[in-house]
Automatic annotation (TrEMBL):
<feature type="transmembrane region" description="Helical">
    <location>
        <begin position="78"/>
        <end position="99"/>
    </location>
</feature>
<feature type="transmembrane region" description="Helical">
    <location>
        <begin position="241"/>
        <end position="269"/>
    </location>
</feature>
<feature type="transmembrane region" description="Helical">
    <location>
        <begin position="50"/>
        <end position="71"/>
    </location>
</feature>
<feature type="region of interest" description="Disordered">
    <location>
        <begin position="773"/>
        <end position="797"/>
    </location>
</feature>
<dbReference type="Pfam" id="PF01590">
    <property type="entry name" value="GAF"/>
</dbReference>
<keyword id="KW-0812">Transmembrane</keyword>
<dbReference type="InterPro" id="IPR029016">
    <property type="entry name" value="GAF-like_dom_sf"/>
</dbReference>
<dbReference type="InterPro" id="IPR003018">
    <property type="entry name" value="GAF"/>
</dbReference>
<comment type="similarity">
    <text>Belongs to the autoinducer-2 exporter (AI-2E) (TC 2.A.86) family.</text>
</comment>
<feature type="transmembrane region" description="Helical">
    <location>
        <begin position="21"/>
        <end position="44"/>
    </location>
</feature>
<feature type="transmembrane region" description="Helical">
    <location>
        <begin position="275"/>
        <end position="295"/>
    </location>
</feature>
<keyword id="KW-1133">Transmembrane helix</keyword>
<keyword id="KW-0472">Membrane</keyword>
<dbReference type="InterPro" id="IPR002549">
    <property type="entry name" value="AI-2E-like"/>
</dbReference>
<feature type="transmembrane region" description="Helical">
    <location>
        <begin position="183"/>
        <end position="202"/>
    </location>
</feature>
<feature type="compositionally biased region" description="Polar residues">
    <location>
        <begin position="787"/>
        <end position="797"/>
    </location>
</feature>
<dbReference type="Pfam" id="PF01594">
    <property type="entry name" value="AI-2E_transport"/>
</dbReference>
Amino acid sequence: MPGETTKTSRQRVEAADTAPAAPVDVVHMAAVLVSASVVVAALYLGRDVLLPLAVAFLIGFALSPLVTWLGHRGLPRLLNVILVMALVLVVLGGLGVLLTQQARSLSAQLPTYQTTIRGKLSDLREMMQGPGIFDGAIRTVDVVQDEVTTEPAQEIGPPPQKVEVIEPAQSPFKTAIEWLTPAIEPLTTLGIIFVFVFLALLDRRDLRDRLLRLLGGNLHRSTAAIEEAGARISRYLLMQLLVNVSYGIPMALGLWFIGVPGALMWGTLAAVMRFIPYLGPALSAIFPIALAFAVDPSWNMVLMTVALIVFLELVSNNIVEPLLYGTSTGLSALSLIAAATFWTLLWGPVGLILSTPLTVCLLVLGRNLPQMQFLVTLLGSTPALDTPTRIYQRLIADDPEEAVEIATEAIEETSLVDFYDDVGMEVLRHTIADYSRNSTAEFRLRISNGLDDMLEDLREDFPPSPNSAVGPRILCIGGKWELDAVASEMLAHALVHEGMRAEFHGFSATGLRKVAKLELGDVDTIVISYFSDKPAAPARQISRRIRQHWPNVKIVLALWDAPEDMLSKDAHQSLGADALVTTIGEAVARLRRMVKPDEAQAVEAVIAPDNDAERIEILHETGVLDGHAREDLDLLAKRAADVFKVGFAVISAIDGDKEFIIGQSKDLPGARTRDGTDMIVMPRDDAVCNHVVSTGEVMVVDDTERDPRFADHPAVDLWKIRFYAGAPLKTAEGHVLGALCLLDTKPHELTDNETALLETLAGDVVAAITGDEDNEVDVRHPEEETASATVGQKVPN
């Protein structure tokens, strides 16, 4: 829940700041450095063995999905591996034959281009021999160098005699050995790679089990590491193949249109060479440009070839690669370059090709092994500091301009209200945690001035809504000290931005005598902010004093860091207030209900989807409302409740004017159908999954008591719901039949992975309703033959 999350994050920040700095363990650091040196030395010295293994496993990752696909067709695994390996050999052999023919044809034509080459070289030589701006300086330097290095002439004796050493004639056998020796090593390496690939594909399960044993520790964590590494590397290889093909085909067509001989060969070479990071594209571009130089007596073909290559590079680097790669590896740009340099120094050109997959494996180890989490910071694309910490650091550094820039980017990605909730309040919590412990007077002054400048710029960049000029007046004030006032300023800005007539008063309510000085004659609602974990006593006193002077003014207490025991449904009554809020979003929603109820009703109204009539027709076609799938749906609801460890789960379907609970994990109270199906039924306006069906998106409410949309909801009151999470039951055609809902009598939170898993289970529910397995959301990795929806999770990017 928001209040619980706030409290936890504040305690975490305080704990981190109050904990004493751990002394540097010199012995441990030395052991780490020695271990790292030993590992690097082993990688370098064992490259002859490790390189074929690494290449084989990389190829195995690429071919494993095809082997698995054949296995799903009922073929034995040995036959699958043989077929895949044979297919690869046939494709490579056919491509080699085609390219050899093109190379032979091109080699036969090269002598005809000698005249063109000589003519262009002659022209270039004449251009280079012309007078230049540096010719005089170069001649002067040459003369001085000759004068300095010239020695006096000395008498020279007879010239030395030339001695020629004649080697004895070699036998044909020895000559053949000298010719074959250079080819034996690469052929042997290729053979080893082929054998390793075959064994890796055939014994994948055994290798997986052995790797799990080596990782040891938590089996869940080790399994997640293997799955994540496999998913990232497989996706990277697939995307790289698509990128290279999307580059090589236009390259071949463009060269053919320009008239460069061997267009197919150069397009294929360009696609293959792009597997080599950074250097591959440049090397592949040399050959077609050189051939265009030799073929065309003019410069038109060369210029068109260069323009084609530059155009394809721009499109590939700026459009195709960002579109296809996305976050497939999770590596930062700097770590990719550093990894390429490191692995190239260790293993040469092949190390450059393997640098990205190998570094992905290191990143996955860092994600899943606590002792190697530093690798995530060094290699990962995720920012090392979250947005609140970045803004707070810029304020400490007296750089409010960059803080405003970071804040503006965050607001554009979400909204002003979400920014203040997720970022602004966290900045204030950082400030509170450091205020009396780590910060000096100078830093406190920087933060105060920086917050003022940042909020002033944000008010200019995100001005009030035109509707904020009318309506009941809302006054926001701080309850005790400066940061309470800053929180009130954020709230006032969010309110006017959302169309409410709100003002911020720099007044601090500290001291009960100051309350009488407030001018609240035309104020409808006053909001008092407290950044304290013990706000009950001052809040109760201030509320009582305001009631004495202005009994008609509504009082809202904004308790940003209140403890859990103060956040019950009727807690505001014990404090003498009309409402209690804990987040900016909750404050905006509740105040809109209080001062503009008609507007709030319009904003919170649930709008039926555009395809509602068609959706209802499809729901009736499934026949699920006759109760035929009740047993299966009850089991799926129970599975969902067990997996997420919540109190209960329900599966609902919305008809034209009613909501039917077609599956539930336990018996629940409520009105039921009388046609023998014995399903809980309620009006559509009171449907528990109305918002999910309307938006077609997952909805998670950590604490229903903090969400005004659920304040008077009948099902929430009947079932004592404090936590709600609903995933849409969406068919393959996009029709939302209802929702799979997780419910509990106490607040909860869902991670991104758990939200994705909830969508997966919703896909299984749709499959059970429609009988169409295409609606199942498959999150299994290609290399996994067996994984149920209860354990299969999407790999985080």
